[in-house]
Predict the structure.
Amino acid sequence: MKVLATYSIKGGVGKTTSAVNLAREAAAAGSRVLVWDLDPQGAATFFFRIKPKVKGGTQRLVGAKGDLVDHVRASDIGGLHVIPADFSLRHLDLHLDGTKRPTERLASLLAGVDGRYDVALLDCPPSISLASESVFGAADFLLVPVIPTTLSSRTLYQLSEFLAGQQSPPALLPYFSMVDGRKRLHRDVMEAVRSEWPDLLTTVVPNASVIERMGPERAPVAAYAPASAAARTFASLWAEVAARLWS
Ligand SMILES: Nc1ncnc2c1ncn2[C@@H]1O[C@H](COP(=O)(O)OP(=O)(O)OP(=O)(O)O)[C@@H](O)[C@H]1O
Ligand SMILES: [Mg+2]
């Protein structure tokens, strides 16, 4: 099982949007997919139309007797299961801190479902915390959406520096998100970041109202606008990610 996380220190950059669409693409390509919503906002849970409920609360989820199998829910999409979030996840750091090896805890929980899934995709809250370090301990790859602005790209460098100091860190897969090609600043920042990050994914997710419609539709783009350019973008993003996962 490959473990991926949509992760960024910065909020509102498209992590959940990517997680939901990429999970759908992976399932459509025949993979058995588990989405683990780690954000108390529960946005991925919402998009997959699942009740926001962590059975027994977050302490039970990550505690010594925790078993992810007890928390898995089926979604409307074939081959795609979800571990939903609820507001109790705001105490995730605290409950991880109460375990023996907090930074290894998410990895050991995921080991319990290895074999049942081909891909686990963790949708993370913004910030960098103990829970993030546990995500870094579990993930093979971090998918990092970057809005081409100064502050968003700056957090990519902060993350990269932080990971450089870690033992066996996950590989970074950054890509541009919510891009407005009409903006000079976006074009300039993209050029600057690309020159320093030659292996940046080439798929660019545009800022598009069809993507924002995921809110009212409560579904990945391909479910309600399968012929849209945005749906093709997520398919191409998944193809690129999958090529890195299984290269
Ligand atoms: N490519 C896009 N085009 C237009 N709107 C987008 C796009 N991607 C995301 N959005 C919108 O931007 C907002 C933030 O997106 P999203 O929730 O995916 O970001 P996030 O990084 O998961 O946020 P958070 O840090 O709060 O978890 C949402 O309202 C979403 O619908
Ligand atoms: Mg999110």
